[in-house]
Amino acid sequence: SSRRSSVIIIGAGVSGLSAAKLLIEKGVEDVVILEASDRIGGRIRKQEFGGLSVELGAGWIVGVGGEQLNPVWELAEKTNLRTCFSDYSNARFNIYDRSGNLIPSGLAADSYKKAVESAMEKLRELEADACYGGDVSKVPEPPSCGFSSTQKTPIELAIDFTLHDFEMAEVEPIATYNDFGEQEFLVADERGYEHLLYKMADDFLFTSEGKILDSRLSLNKVVRELKHSRDGVTVMTEDGCVYQANYVILSASIGVLQSNLISFSPPLPRWKTEAIEKLDVMVYTKIFLKFPHKFWPCGPGKEFFIYAHERRGYYTFWQHMENAYPGSNILVVTLTNGESKRVEAQTDEETVKEAMGVLRDMFGPNIPEATDILVPRWWNNRFQRGSYSNYPIISNHQVVRDIKAPVGCIFFTGEHTSEKYSGYVHGAYLTGIDTANALLEEMGRQEERSSENKTSL
Ligand code: FAD
Fold first, then answer.
1. pTM for the structure as a whole
2. 444, 412, 443: which is closest to 428 by C-alpha?
């Protein structure tokens, strides 16, 4: 037997929860939230490591200090989330070569300037090239991949990686920084970034002692099939449960949409599947390493450092956690895309070995062995299949509009449906609100139509 509700929300990440909150506040109380994993939060996720709670997914509140108030910053302030100001821009002055020499800051600054100029030049060329006619499929690879990496020195490669995988704001205007400000704050709170979500859930779901006990939220419910028609949707989960509703809000990531986890019948229309296929999925992996004591410099401007290797992205970008948690003796190295997938596929022992090799290059042979490692696997997580969406630099607005456009009674939400802030927590949060509003409007229109039908009878 199955119960029919007004709305089924698939996914209890930040976007699914912000959509649920708005719907319930607007009086649509019979919502059902189906979450595949055993927890809420999705890509906001803490884990105990080395005596601390570290963030496997989102770590920063990005876009603070500007004209508009970032809604996620607002939530953080309300809940007294502990945060730490981060300044990525120092990283470029802490570049080590394979012999452990720090690149002189003048040389580093010069290489950096050149890299920014060349990326901007590439971008202008793309923009000027009118023959693309806005069709992103014809736009060549973005500059990050367009460079011929063979001719680059390890320093240039390291800078290229840092610039394109971390600091695109130097090359092109980014709406997040323009609207909300250029500051970034690292969440360093034992309760985790996800504390914001529990606080949010507290406002509209029944909770007790920090646990959500509301029967409208069901965990471990993996949605596998979505039957939809004019009359509504039927949702089937892996454990054989059936749910019916008038509408569904689907917040699964772009990676999940590209996979075959959820089948649709009838299938999604071509314009939708094509738009979904066009989006790149970025894999971003923060590897945590614990040491018996610290052996890296810790003064001002030293939080981030870079390793220059002949392979682009090979354990390039490092951060120490001493600013956030003094005495924690934890280092974080960030890998992306191909390197992320490679490391996900190997054992953690192999990864420690590689990382230790890199650290010995930088800091000498006498540093202590890591005592623990944590390697998140976002790519191999079938409820994620990647870290976040990556729109082409010269983005065609039609792609994002198609990705977020509803198909009948299926509404789409999530980070990847954000026109301005895709890839961020605040982007996901705001799309939840947008999608819920669009659905409320549709429900209003539906009500009008049915009352017109009644009067004409
Ligand atoms: P999700 O959080 O993915 O929520 C979707 C939910 O749907 C998940 O809980 C999933 O389990 C569930 N689901 C999937 N398939 C099914 C199914 N078939 N049935 C039922 N449920 C399903 N953003 C920042 O602002 N700052 C950062 O510093 C930052 N760093 C990041 C670092 C990493 C490593 C990652 C992975 C992301 C980072 N982000 C960052 C991005 C940010 O985390 C995301 O944009 C945001 O959390 C996405 O929220 P969402 O609701 O769109 O998706």
1. 0.94
2. 412
